[in-house]
């Protein structure tokens, strides 16, 4: 059985910003807003993957993000997409990214 295509795998206008997801991951959001983000994560695989990224790759410091800018850096998108595919049983993309990082780390 083939994994479903991820053509809708992107942020949309209802998604929290990347900065807000990072604040959620490190526990810096209010209790109310954390609950709202947690509810959003239960239905948005893209944001769930982004929080997983921040869990596995902690950020040095929070960066301010321009209002309304929901663009995600290409490497983060690539990793998030690989994590989602891995969750659906296709680990080739994630393995490729991890092996690529191991080669870079050894250089």
Throw out a few tags for this protein.
mainly alpha; 56% helix; 107 residues
Structural class given helices, strands, pairing?
A: mainly alpha
Low-confidence stretches: none
Radius of gyration from the alpha-carbon trace, in angstroms: 15 Å
Discrete helix count: 5
3D architecture notes:
The chain has 5 helices and no strands. The protein has helices at 18-25, 31-41, 45-56, 74-87, 92-106. The longest helix has 15 residues, at 92-106. The chain is globular, with a radius of gyration of 15 Å. The N and C termini lie far apart (38 Å). The model has no long low-confidence stretch (mean pLDDT 77).
Q: What's the topology here?
A:
Elements: H1 18-25, H2 31-41, H3 45-56, H4 74-87, H5 92-106
Helix pairs in contact: 1-3, 3-4, 4-5
Provide a quick synopsis of the model:
The chain is mainly alpha-helical. It has helices at 18-25, 31-41, 45-56, 74-87, 92-106. The termini are far apart.
